[in-house]
């Protein structure tokens, strides 16, 4: 598996090895042992699957407050998305910064979204199916979000007028969002 770092520490892109021939392909989409060898230890407990029937559907930017914060491992089964991750850990050197990557059925890339980061996607083609693992169950009372178009974030989405849910249309900017993540600096020994 190829691991690609982003400008946000802990946010990683994975390119699983894929073996293909005239019949199709085979790949391991998840192998706990492989991730542990990379120093990534998460106990994923649930898989979520979504379908977006149109291009330009934007979902996000979502997160759950601690102690129900979720780490996500996200991949696309069909279609393509522009996937965005925002650092919302107060005190982090990259607080308020974002990273974006295209995930598609074709490139088979996956992104690891650690706790303390908001996450959103914008579909690039119709009938896009997304699947992601989480290490905490969904908790409605801890569910929060940030406005997709917060000018302080300056996210360069591939659409200017996305298709949004009522929930996502009403999310606050980062400066007004309820956040309880603190950056934990790892001391070097």
UniProtKB/TrEMBL annotation:
Active site feature: 62 (proton acceptor), 132 (proton donor)
Catalyzed reactions: dTDP-4-dehydro-6-deoxy-alpha-D-glucose = dTDP-4-dehydro-beta-L-rhamnose
InterPro entries: RmlC-like, RmlC-like_jellyroll, RmlC_Cupin_sf
Molecular function in Gene Ontology: dTDP-4-dehydrorhamnose 3,5-epimerase activity
Pathway connected to this protein: Carbohydrate biosynthesis; dTDP-L-rhamnose biosynthesis
Any Gene Ontology CC annotation: cytosol
Record has rRNA-binding as a keyword: no
Keyword annotations of the record: Isomerase
Pfam families: dTDP_sugar_isom
Gene3D superfamilies in the record: Jelly Rolls
EC number(s) given by UniProt: 5.1.3.13
GO biological process terms, semicolon-separated: dTDP-rhamnose biosynthetic process; polysaccharide biosynthetic process
Site feature (Participates in a stacking interaction with the thymidine ring of dTDP-4-oxo-6-deoxyglucose) residues: 138
Highest taxon of the lineage: Bacteria
Subunit structure: Homodimer.
Similarity comment: Belongs to the dTDP-4-dehydrorhamnose 3,5-epimerase family.
Role this protein plays: Catalyzes the epimerization of the C3' and C5'positions of dTDP-6-deoxy-D-xylo-4-hexulose, forming dTDP-6-deoxy-L-lyxo-4-hexulose.
Official protein name in the record: dTDP-4-dehydrorhamnose 3,5-epimerase
Originating species: Paenibacillus sedimenti
Gene, per the UniProt record: rfbC
